[in-house]
Amino acid sequence: MIKFCSLYSGSSGNAIFLSAGKTKVLIDAGLSGKKITEALVSIGEKPTELSAILVSHEHSDHVRGAGIVSRKYDVPIYANENTWAAMEKQIGPINVKNKMYFNTGKEFEIGNVLVNPFPIPHDAAEPVGFNFFVDNNKITTATDIGHMNRDLLECIEGSDVLLIESNHDIEMLKVGPYPWHLKKRILGDRGHLSNEMAGKVVAHLAEKGTRCFFLGHLSQENNFPELAYETVRNILKEKNIDIERDIRLSVALRDRVGQVVEI
Ligand SMILES: [Zn+2]
Ligand SMILES: [Zn+2]
């Protein structure tokens, strides 16, 4: 059985749990060790049983608790070389045996899970999204995406479960409190994905067969869950895709452990 759950998702901190049998992984660890531990326990999981922490990129909302969890529970951290170099100071000393490297674009195994780290356009050292293959299932996490392109779309197509970024409402961001340089960064090619773009991606993938979607990495200042959901729902409606009838769509929240999906 595969178990998938967004523990926390948003600009304030990210951690996603995925397990397949005895293989249990955390995708990013961007909250305090205490919060991550509590969230795992709340879904019936023990942090001591984690097989790995996979790091998408070095921004603090993805790595804040990685060092703590690794040291406290003796868990290996997996990241590519440039991300390791960029995050090492932030996460503190890691036991040599728990420092694991992967190459972007090259599949590797953790227990019975095949992992494919694919490149994403974002302003970090070497940011990635992840595909997880277990038996005939494909599960994908892709947040912190500046824009969608052909290569990226190919990586996420055919997923059974997809957690995709739905970071901001463009109008809210434009009129919101952020300074101009920050607005420009978020809207830029290596920033974050808007609700509208997320909607287009969800519609495209739904047409190709994906049935379970999570909208994630919502901005605290430039979005709110109902708006992200409604924006995506309206785009789906235009394409004649009905949320109740055809797919499952939920919002992965910033401050609450999400629904557990079991396949
Ligand atoms: Zn982030
Ligand atoms: Zn980021």
UniProtKB/TrEMBL annotation:
<feature type="domain" description="Metallo-beta-lactamase">
    <location>
        <begin position="12"/>
        <end position="190"/>
    </location>
</feature>
<dbReference type="Pfam" id="PF12706">
    <property type="entry name" value="Lactamase_B_2"/>
</dbReference>
<protein>
    <submittedName>
        <fullName>MBL fold metallo-hydrolase</fullName>
    </submittedName>
</protein>
<dbReference type="GO" id="GO:0016787">
    <property type="term" value="F:hydrolase activity"/>
</dbReference>
<keyword id="KW-0378">Hydrolase</keyword>
<dbReference type="InterPro" id="IPR036866">
    <property type="entry name" value="RibonucZ/Hydroxyglut_hydro"/>
</dbReference>
<dbReference type="InterPro" id="IPR001279">
    <property type="entry name" value="Metallo-B-lactamas"/>
</dbReference>
<dbReference type="InterPro" id="IPR052533">
    <property type="entry name" value="WalJ/YycJ-like"/>
</dbReference>
